Amino acid sequence: MFQIELAKGTESEGLPEMLATLLRQNLEQKPYKLKDFNALDIVVGLKVTDLEVAMTLVFRHGHLVIRDGLVMDPKLLITTDSEGIFDLNLIRIRFGLPWYLDAQGRKVLKSLLSGRLKIRGMLTHMGSLTRLTKIMSVK
Asked: What 3-state class would DSSP assign to 88?
């Protein structure tokens, strides 16, 4: 069982609602992702530069609250444009890990190297980032 909710005042924002819907669908259609979702206990910030939108994802062992803006000192902060968010959602998972050796994976790596995609806390919270990538991936 999982719970995903939008914090009060976030309901009218388009991107947080789309993200919540994507996650719900992923978890309902691919229940094996629940293990990773339930294991997450971290605050993640997400800044989408071209849309000028920021949100905070508060994961607490099977419960996610999506808040408007960057709050609660995120341990992971992902900054990219809307295309970068789409690219991250298309990462394939192979052998239980994000797969960076196909065209989509190389595209994400190129975004990281060029600075178009920035992930603060990536090295110190690699396990949580991997779990987040796995539950967000539509593949």
From this structure: helix
